[in-house]
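Hi Y.,

Following your request, here is the sequence exactly as I used it, all 176 residues.
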Amino acid sequence: MRIAELLCAALLGGAVPLAHAAGADCLTQAEVTKLDTDFWAKFPSPDGFAAYAAPDMRLDTNIVDLMRPELAKADGPTRARSFAVYASQHPEYFAPFRTEHSSHYLYYPGRDRHPDAVKQASVFPANRCVSMFSFDDERHTCIAGARTRAMSFSFVKENGRVQLQGIEVGMEACQP
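Below is the corresponding structure, written out as tokens. Let me know if you'd prefer a different format.
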């Protein structure tokens, strides 16, 4: 289901035309390593989030503090920074995501660049054109009567730059 959501976001949202991915839009192993040191090692760093955020990055959430009207009108880096500040203020929910997340890399298995040809892998697929990838939270641990229902960061490589295209985070009440 998550793959279908990512493909719909890319195809219908216009984030990356998957059918026309070029070599410059293929993620490299070096960029994955750089993401580990610049983004994940300092998670949730407001500066790290803002540096990777696409200008039109979307923030889909049910967290009231992040649903302010002025934030909805802000640019992507401002939205990304706001989420990171909120996440750093609530480490009990978000700090484990730094090391406890699942990865999903979307790639083309050959020269066929048709959307139906896209495959998914949980580890970086060597010698493949990866242009979109996401990190998802699958813990859903109940802490103090609340838990993350969904949390996902979607990245794309577009015009030679790795960008945080979207943050999806939902919280819900739970019984410990």
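The first strand starts at residue 53 and ends at 61.

Thanks again,
Q.
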